[in-house]
Design goal:
five-stranded antiparallel β-sheet, 11 strands, 42% strand
Length: 146
């Protein structure tokens, strides 16, 4: 597992029925305790300046896929910090061969954080607070598809 939240391993296009339907990228959790999926505030992914909203992103954890709406209700699905989540991004045609600049944003709620702090951590808004123990909300990386 790499230190960066956005992992280089597993970044590739997805082919279904002979057609490229999108791409996938793996992310890790920078928080040492793990969280339940219902604690994750999902944001958009930006690839080469193009924003793809959370409605077009599926989270795959331990072989099961979740939309952001399903994640809100999955209070018994735990994301261990030693497990990677695969983001399945619906993008017909996928990504061209070469380098791509990615930005993915998400945040996690914590019962011991004051509500005002939770309000400040919004994945699709500029980052206004950075807490070392939780990592950045907005994560960027340049990756290669061959």
């Amino acid at each position: 597992m790499e230190k960066q939240v956005i992992q280089s391993v597993g970044f590739r296009n997805i082919t279904e029925g002979g057609k490229v339907t999108g791409f996938q990228v793996k992310i890790r959790l920078p928080y040492y305790r793990g969280v339940f999926l219902s604690q994750v505030k999902v944001g958009s992914i930006v690839v080469d300046g193009e924003e793809i909203t959370k409605d077009h992103i599926m989270w795959r954890l331990n072989g099961s896929d979740y939309t952001w709406q399903e994640m809100l209700k999955s209070g018994n699905v735990h994301w261990n910090p030693l497990e990677l989540v695969t983001l399945i991004v619906d993008k017909p045609g996928g990504l061209k061969q070469g380098y791509h600049d990615l930005k993915y944003s998400y945040a996690c709620t914590h019962s011991y954080m004051p509500p005002i702090m939770e309000e400040l951590m919004q994945p699709d808004k500029p980052e206004t607070v950075y807490l070392v123990e939780f990592g950045h909300i907005h994560n960027t990386r340049r990756l290669l598809i061959v």
